[in-house]
Amino acid sequence: MKPVNIHEAKTHLSRLVERAAAGEEIIIAKSGKPMARLVPLREDLTPRVFGTMKGQIWIADDFDDPLPPELMTHFTGEV
In the chain, what are the domain boundaries? Predict the structure, then answer.
């Protein structure tokens, strides 16, 4: 398919989205130069397997302890 210019894409976005959802790849161009690609969304329906990273991640024991006061001032703006 030939590229669609940005003005046409803005004007006919709903139609282009429908075409992409049906499986067509739409190339959007600016001044004839391809800039973006509109493709159908492919959802990954594979269930997650829990525990696959077990033993590979370490979290410090003090991970959720309160921050020291000198660091908190950077977040609260207090001096």
Answer: 4-38
